[in-house]
Amino acid sequence: MTAATAPSSLVGGRNRAPRRTRAPWVLRAVGVVLAAAFAFPGIYVVWRNISTDADPIGLLRSSRTLDPLGRTMQLAVLVSLASAAIGTTLAWLTTRTDVPLRRLWRTVLPIPLVFPTFIGAAAFIRTLNPGGLANDVLNNLGIDRTFELRGLFGAWLVLTLFTYPYVYLPVVARLQRLAGSLEESARVLGDSPGQTFRRIVLPQISSAILAGTLLVFLYTISDFGAVQLMRYDTLTRAINTNYLARPSVAFALSLLLLLLAIAVVVGERAVVGRIPGDATARSTRLVEYRLGAWRWPAGIVVLAVALLAVGAPLIAMLDWAIDGVTRASRDGRPLTVDADTIVEAARHTLESSVLAALASVAAVLPIALLVGRYRSRSGSFSHAIVIGSFALPGILIALALRFWTLRSGFAGDLFYDSKALLIFAYVVRFGSLAMGITLVAVQSVPDRFHDVGATLGAGRLRRFRTIDLPLMAPGLLAAVGLVLLSTMKELPISLLIAPIGYQTLATRIFLSFEESFVAEAGLMAVVLVAMSGVLSWFLVLRRAEHR
Amino acid sequence: MTTAFTTVRPTAKRQAVAGRTTVRLAALLLVVATIAVACGNSDIPEPLDGVAADIYGGDCVALDGREVTIYSGRSENLMDPVLSAFQCETGIEAKVRYDSATNLALTLAEEGDRTEADVFLSNSPGPIGFLEQRGLLGELDADVLALVAIQNRSDEGSWVGFSGRKRVAVYNVDSVSADELPESVFELTDAKWRDRVAIPGTNGSFLDWFTVFRAQEGDDVATQWLNDMVANGAKYYPNNRSIVDAAGRGEIDLGLVNHYYNFQEAAAIGEDHRALNHDLSGDDIGSLLIITAATLVETTPHPAEAHELIRYLLSEPVQRYYTEETFEYPLAAGVQSAEILPPLNASGTATIDFDSLGGGLEVTLDIVEASGIANQ
Hints:
The complex is a heterodimer.
Chain A: H1 6-11, H2 25-51, H3 56-59, H4 63-96, H5 102-108, H6 117-128, H7 133-140, H8 151-175, H9 180-188, H10 193-222, H11 225-229, H12 235-245, H13 247-274, E1 288-290, H14 295-325, H15 339-372, H16 377-388, H17 394-405, H18 409-415, H19 419-443, H20 447-455, H21 460-488, H22 492-496, H23 505-514, H24 518-546
Chain B: E1 6-8, H1 17-38, H2 50-55, E2 67-72, H3 76-90, E3 93-98, H4 101-111, E4 119-122, H5 125-133, H6 142-145, E5 159-172, E6 197-199, H7 204-217, H8 219-231, E7 235-236, H9 240-249, E8 254-258, H10 260-269, E9 275-278, E10 289-296, H11 303-313, H12 316-324, H13 357-371
Parallel strand pairs in B: 2-3, 2-4, 6-7, 6-8
Antiparallel strand pairs in B: 4-10, 5-8, 5-9, 5-10
Helix pairs in contact in B: 4-5, 5-13, 7-8, 7-13
């Protein structure tokens, strides 16, 4: 027997003949309700296509649609590949090796998730492009260099650096749950570390990699902030310029985006279905590799990613902020924000993102159980809806929510302009982020544990609490982290759905930046990054210490 | 080389992770709650300070229960001092939702007659045309309209301008010499400007400007100009701010933008910013004044408060604030534009018939998309 087939026969579970235990009816009912909640933006887009006589099929015959669509696809594929490679490599290095400073990296590496792309991309430009900060440094060293970040390469680089955490976080969570015994057996039987990784580790983390990469793909096709600043003309640019002049075209293009997303999600499910089972017993030992001579080169790789992904934008933001703070000494205009405003915005950001993160994981867990435990068809359908909606630009979710709440009478009046509605909108927007990891977490609990639990007379809830939750914890925590950091930067929903006057850091950064109040924007962006660093430490590093 | 790796066994066991997770999440919630309480709102009225005090220096009257809800496409940084002063001076509570004017216009269209908004403020004409086409704007009282010159208000009474932003050419002082600066946008199709000029091709204020361009010069001339610009290697940037930033760094030599952004950027960054605004000839389409406007939402239940707010925007202290502090052109109360702003000549405040912009935008977008500028 080769090592490649070893995991299935040793750990058992998922790839025996699929069991079709029927899910409890309560769970099925909850799944249907949740699917309906997540479907409303999609239904809105379809409805608007009908009500405005939009012609999505006709648009597909025009090069004005096909060219941006082609560029969107090209960019999304390239970013997905790069993010998958970088995210997986970083995850392995920081969980399984003795790479230098790995606790620091574990806190720093998720941070790019929190950069709103419009200011993140602008900060990259400010640091790296002609006349930028890096250029100044090089000029002082006597190097004349006129590199310009733009177009496909610029969009690819910036989006890869912003999105690799979508892969990194779930893979870290998965790696922490792998049974070390298999890896050790493989090593004892003479496999090199490379072979061990390929034959033992990779098959077991591939569903986590795929789930993360899917999010990268969907994020990339829906991004507007980075692609527009990199001047790479994609479908979202076309959607945005059409809203006012030709709403029907904007809605038709959005529908195409949604259909593309659903096709990709369904495709991913088909691929995942063929991946060898990855349900593993709870790991008591985590195999760790000593890199030896490769320790420092590996450290430099991690450092380079961190410097580029976090350092480069942060330098420009700090530069803007420092210019602003020292402005008074140059007789410049006083800042238009004060400490109170920033603290208030930070409080709103923290409050809404923590609630949204917890609610998101709670909302997708029933669907993950339906799909992962009971392989329910309706669960798979809900799953596709939840994830596919991630490709919709946030503004459409906000508009859809406005549309539905104002037409739903009593319930609409009750929730209009409430924080509950804001959290609900965040959950719809970012539940997709939690979905993939939560599903992987659910599937990492071997069926036979339940059989044993049931045999011993434990009820469903007790089994869930004592068997599932402990095993799923790292995955669920990673899901919380993903949603948390993403909500902190969210814009369209925060601007349009939040109770009136409820400003977050992201909205204040956006409003300042768009009107060229770059000092204020930079200052608050630095606060946002600092906050995300603390939260990241809280979620990631703290648990590492508990090991 | 792989022999450098060795496998080691970890030391500690992990136990009861879920329990600790729950504890940690609970702790996190506790932190949030504590901060929420610690920073809780206090309703003690405070006297105005800073810029708002320059607009209104008197004592604040108590809020009297009247309110007005504003959807503002102009940012909080520009509006907050004005609205604080308004609230303090009138006792009318000003509630604001801030976003881009486009997003707010789309929201208003979606909300229809159930919107909470009384007033919509836009920093460019396009969103107003969009709402006017859909019959979502109410009619302003004649005495409010009369506060501005006839070219700065709607014939139908649906909008009134309250500040202006002028189209200019922003240029990098190190790469463009003063004597080669153009007098007209038509010069920019010349070979000497090849690959040097930036256009915010799909930005709202550019589309509005180009619509007026079409109206004044005819579709053929306007289309030809844009196609020539593309053929001459004009570079696409998504908005005014990114062009001003690029000109300041020397990434581009010259760009067509609103005058406003370079003043802000210079105020923020100081001497490092190497770009200046250049006024094109007064009768050139490239020096058009674009108006930021206030409108009444058709279904407003608070027309009196809404009018009072709009009247306040057109009052002397606010107009002075807009030109002295935010570098815009005043439109009412006889306020002169700030000294650092280039003077507006007579034809500079040309009429923009943006009552027709809503419909005109569609054709504009056709021309702009066909030119391929967005992919430059």
